Amino acid sequence: NKHQTKDAHANRGMTLEKDINETNHYYLESEQAVIHKKPTPVQVVNVDYPKRSAAVIKEAYYQKPSTTDFNGLYRGYHIDFEAKETKNKQSIPLSNIHDHQVEHMKRIDKHGGITFFIIRFSKMETTYLLPLQPFLKMWEAQQNGGRKSIPHDYIAENGYVIPFRLQAKVDYLKVVDDVFINGGEIT
Amino acid sequence: NKHQTKDAHANRGMTLEKDINETNHYYLESEQAVIHKKPTPVQVVNVDYPKRSAAVIKEAYYQKPSTTDFNGLYRGYHIDFEAKETKNKQSIPLSNIHDHQVEHMKRIDKHGGITFFIIRFSKMETTYLLPLQPFLKMWEAQQNGGRKSIPHDYIAENGYVIPFRLQAKVDYLKVVDDVFINGGEIT
Ligand SMILES: [Mg+2]
Ligand SMILES: [Mg+2]
Hints:
The structure is a homodimer.
Chain A: H1 8-11, H2 14-29, E1 34-37, E2 42-48, E3 56-62, E4 70-74, E5 77-86, E6 91-93, H3 99-110, E7 114-121, E8 126-131, H4 132-143, E9 149-151, H5 152-158, E10 160-161, H6 172-181
Parallel strand pairs in A: 5-7
Antiparallel strand pairs in A: 1-4, 2-3, 4-5, 6-9, 7-8, 8-10
The structure holds magnesium ion (2 copies).
One magnesium ion (MG) binds near residues 83 and 84 of chain B.
């Protein structure tokens, strides 16, 4: 199969992303929500245009995403979130979250959208929804010299366990209902 | 400049897209809305990982986008639209609009989002916002053997001219306010 991927970059942290993609597909098919993974931005430098066949990109580079992994629409609400997975047991590092991603999420919050992190501790098989506000406390503490990771305990206390269902392995809309829509964070 | 693009594909219909990107940047900076171009999806087949430097994508292919060009958040509303430009004077062809893009837009409409086309007749320097409903009439007619393009006249009658401003060359949020939010299409 010529199109088989050899792309380790794209496969990093693949399990959570794959589970969310499948969940989103289920949400789409069951007409609950329209939420998609944004494509990874790529800067194309060189392309071949062979006769009678598809253009072949010959040189390109991954770009840092300026926003988040996923966005879409649920019950009239704009949904925007970032997914992070770690093999650590005690904490998740803040190092691979970018400043402009956090700025983006602050904007989403300000303009009336629903924004959060989905964080998986893969060794414990536990996945949380962590709203932006408790995340920001740790993020801002880090910027003032605080710890460079968020403890699992903090996430367990300030986040919400996302239920696993066979059809929706990361059934996060259940939590969105409870926390943001019925819970009154969004009015 | 090594990163200079030779990418004709990416430059196709570049003027409208560039003007919308600039407009979105202005909307973002002036805190009016958070709307971004979605990256073009690319299927990566082969990547080099040189020591001490960035991964180089050596073989990749453009994929058909399964959704639309732009989405985001405005005054709490989910916004999702497709931009099309033509050098024709009389009509815009339906040929480069994909079935799954239209299906996507129907879903956005159904779930309470605001969705539309931005269509530019570049020779006349006129840009319209065409809501989904009048577009669908022409789209469905085409599927039943009707014409394969939308006449300029039809767009002028059923769409709305988007004002040009120096800072917001395609000031479409003005039209979104009038048509969808204050105009009662969204309640
Ligand atoms: Mg991620
Ligand atoms: Mg387009």
